[in-house]
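F.,

This is the one I mentioned.
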């Protein structure tokens, strides 16, 4: 089975950086799958004209792929924007379309009205629509009057796994968070929780990610005297993240809203205990060992679960406990498990 990727990153941000020409790139991975990548400047997608122009340009890139490789058996599109392109291809070539939706805007109603209108039309015209969690499906059911199936995300378990040679020490109390530094992730709340924890424990907090809130968070860390106990790494690539995860004991995830919580899944696969706010998407993993979901999203409840996690991530059986978390999580979140669910979903339709 060949799974080729056709992707267009067309964004006004490139134009603002003085980049005026599109770049085409075709790669072949180790499995022989082809990646058709189109990158370059484009108009903003905040008008009907701009959004339709984006869809048409992406569609032309897919046609270029079809001219070279032939008509695919199935198109699997991601999010409503991908669905808008895929449905246009479907009408031209009579190819079935499966959509994976994982956009947070359906949950907090932050999706733009124009995008909602075009997105709902495309999703209605797709053959199968899936969401990455039951919570996202419930939110979308308010907009989309059709069957929606749940197909959770998977983790690259070859990359995210427990590495005994990079392990953290049992009593080191090294805590990490990974995510975009934006208000919705509530990393300011995490810093305040770590401050409370540091009154009774010797802890170090690592913050991985980039975003507009970085300066504010650094100022907060200094203001509450956590500057010497906090490390800001900036945005890192996946291999660097998995190495860091293996050097820490606990992931603190205080995000307000998640469609799934991929960073939680990746941390569990590395054998970390995870303390998370009850942000809906994470509930999909609540049966996995090592996951501590707070009663509510307050700092008090998160602090209680953080102390519980610290008790569980220490002691003589620390490494065995981490391996158990990793083994069970990697089995549940593997590509193999995902493909079994995917094939069952496709065969039913």
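My design for it:
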């Amino acid at each position: 089975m060949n799974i080729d990727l056709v992707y267009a990153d067309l964004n006004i941000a490139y134009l603002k950086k003085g980049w005026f020409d599109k770049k085409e790139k075709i790669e072949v991975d180790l499995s022989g799958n082809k990646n058709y990548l189109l990158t370059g400047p484009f108009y903003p997608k905040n008008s009907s004209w701009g959004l339709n122009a984006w869809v048409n340009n992406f569609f032309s890139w897919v046609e270029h792929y079809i001219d070279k490789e032939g008509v695919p058996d199935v198109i699997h599109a991601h999010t409503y924007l991908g669905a808008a392109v895929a449905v246009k291809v479907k009408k031209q070539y009579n190819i079935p379309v499966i959509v994976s939706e994982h956009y947070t805007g359906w949950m907090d109603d932050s999706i733009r009205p124009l995008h909602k209108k075009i997105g709902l039309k495309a999703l209605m015209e797709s053959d199968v629509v899936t969401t990455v969690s039951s919570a996202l499906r419930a939110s979308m059911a308010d907009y989309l009057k059709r069957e929606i199936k749940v197909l959770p995300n998977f983790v690259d378990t070859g990359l995210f796994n427990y590495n005994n040679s990079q392990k953290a020490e049992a009593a080191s109390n090294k805590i990490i968070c990974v995510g975009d530094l934006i208000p919705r992730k509530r990393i300011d709340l995490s810093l305040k929780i770590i401050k409370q924890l540091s009154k009774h424990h010797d802890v170090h907090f690592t913050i991985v990610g980039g975003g507009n809130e970085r300066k504010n968070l650094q100022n907060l860390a200094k203001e509450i005297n956590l500057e010497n106990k906090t490390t800001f790494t900036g945005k890192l690539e996946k291999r660097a993240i998995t190495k860091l995860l293996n050097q820490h004991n606990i992931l603190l995830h205080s995000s307000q809203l998640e469609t799934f919580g991929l960073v939680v899944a990746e941390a569990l696969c590395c054998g970390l205990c995870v303390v998370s706010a009850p942000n809906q998407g994470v509930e999909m993993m609540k049966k996995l060992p090592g996951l501590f979901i707070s009663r509510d999203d307050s700092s008090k409840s998160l602090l209680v679960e953080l102390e519980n996690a610290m008790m569980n991530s220490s002691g003589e059986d620390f490494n065995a406990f981490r391996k158990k978390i990793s083994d069970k999580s990697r089995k549940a979140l593997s590509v193999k498990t995902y493909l079994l669910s995917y094939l069952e979903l496709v065969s039913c339709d």
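The chain has two domains: 5-150, 164-332.

Talk soon.
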